[in-house]
Amino acid sequence: MILLTRKAEFSASHYYWNEAWSAEENARAFGKCANRNGHGHNYTLEVTVAGEVDPVTGFVVDLKQLKDVMEKEVVAAYDHRHLNLEVPEFKAANPTTENIAVAIWRRLEGKIPGARLHRVRVYEMPDLFADYFGG
Q1: 33 catalytically annotated
Q2: Which of 71, 89, 98, 124 is catalytic?
């Protein structure tokens, strides 16, 4: 089995909020991230796929195809968006780095021809990251 990784970047804004809590509870739990106006981050996305090398093409997956799927399913949907307000999966879930990784996995799963999604890694620049291995 061979693992291949492709990287992409996007910028987005968000906030963290729990509707069941008071403003004070949200501020205590989420600090500055509880500002309903939101704030932005630059994100780096790494998508790793697994598979066997095709003896005819020499590919596990054509990396251009992987890039195109990542662009269509993730970058076009997330880049320069307010995640809470514009991205459906975050209408009811806080767009934490962990939840973003899970949402990206769901967006990509089954859409990469010839390879199996192995890992999604999201970096919230400069140094936070979350890995998601499915499940």
Answers
A1: yes
A2: 124
118 is a catalytic site residue:
no
CATH value at residue 88? 3.30.479.10
Instruction: Give dist(CA 134, CA 108) in Å, integer.
Output: 11
**Which one of the listed residues 39, 52, 80, 109 is annotated catalytic?**
80
What is the predicted pLDDT for the residue at 63?
Answer: 93
List the beta bridge partners of residue 6.
47
Structural domains counted in the chain: 1
pLDDT digits (tens, 9 = 90+) for 26-65: 999 999 999 999 999 999 999 999 999 999 999 999 999 9
Name the residue range of residue 22's domain.
Answer: 2-132
Q: Is 124 a catalytic residue?
A: yes
3-class DSSP string for 27-89:
HHHHHHHHCCCCEEEEEEEEEEEEECCCCCCCCCCCHHHHHHHHHHHHHHHHCCEEHHHHCHH
